[in-house]
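User: Round two. Same drill as before: sequence, then structure, for each protein.

Assistant: Same drill it is. First protein:
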Amino acid sequence: MTAKLLSGKEVAQAILDQAKKDAAELKAKGINPKLVVLRVGEDPGSISYEKGIISTVNDVDIDFENKVFPEDVTQEEFMATLNEFNNDKNVSGILVFKPLPAQLDEEEIKYALNTLKDPDAMNPTNLGKLMIDDARGFSPCTPEGVMEMFDYYGIDLVGKDVVVINRSVVFGKPMAMMLASASATVTICHSKTKNLAEKCKAADIVITATGRYGMVTPDMLGDNTIVIDVAMAQKKDKDGNFVLNEKGKKIRTGDCVEECAEKAAMITSATPGCGGGTGPITSALLTKHLIKGCKMLNGLL
């Protein structure tokens, strides 16, 4: 059996199409959604991520502004700028890029971020709203992207046994809460879980996000298992050495090995040949959250 490949790009495009319509409706009322990115330093990964965000918001016709701080920025300088954008009525969303340098107090920053302008749920208050099913909160984009995947492909979660291989605050825990709210039965697993393979094989759905290629193998899956792999990893051989492509570069992948696509019923993964991953959905959801925040800030929700 070969798995049905689930496309994150298709899901993302559906989200972007709706966000573009919503942005146009707001602009017709004289309201312009706007995203601000706060970035410290010139980390190549952050710059690349920022370019992707700029492209996405431009496609949806959402305004964008970035503020780049030097590596030695003080807490006072950073907070002053954050509070300025918190109070700016023309700003509907703020993204604080991490990691932050050691001299900045991330705890103060994340609690200071305006909860209505927090599209990726950095402020723990939004995570608290998720716990009580408060629709005015925001969920972290990556786990919400998995829920969008289920919705787009009509995958019913009611009564399903779901294994989540991740227990982080940014993914595993909010993922479990969303699944439970959808009436799934959730088991959270991690590096110290006993009999992980048995738990996965008994599950209807396996969601993995460890960043370790080979974490999920075909023998861990049942014949009807749905696999959602949101990890970003680099391919290694059985001896733990990086596998290089024809250009001598490391191969990006997910947690699943390629053969999982021959065992699972449905699969999406960044692993080559396994559907393409959920990354595009995460970026698209930023636009959906910006629209939602903009509506709340303007009394339309």
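Second protein:
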Amino acid sequence: MEEWALTAPKYTDPATGLSWYVIDDKQPYMTGEDAEKFLEMCRETGEFPLKKFAEMVGTIQHLDDNTTAYIADNGTVIKSKDGKELEIDTSSMTYDMIMNMFRNLPKSGNYFDSSYWQKNIQKAMFSVEQ
């Protein structure tokens, strides 16, 4: 993984100062000293490392108090606390496209409406290509 980090895009969390890389435009990972600092931070706070990492790199997105998006390299699942669920195909999107989409989501809209996601996926893919 250290070798991959030589050529993979690097991202830094502004809140913690910790960095991670993305391999194959899809999969975030940490290496070296940042990974050690991250694990120590989780030990100190009692947070589950996998969940904290996913939140930090954006593969878990809290859309509102009731709705969360779980992003994987083969798609995204939108889930609500009351049991609603929607799968959306984000498999053709890169990490940057997906993060751009979530950064720019309209604050209003129905997270369980496929057309809401189709519009936002289209905007995200178009804006990254420009």
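The two ends are 30 Å apart (CA to CA).

User: Perfect.
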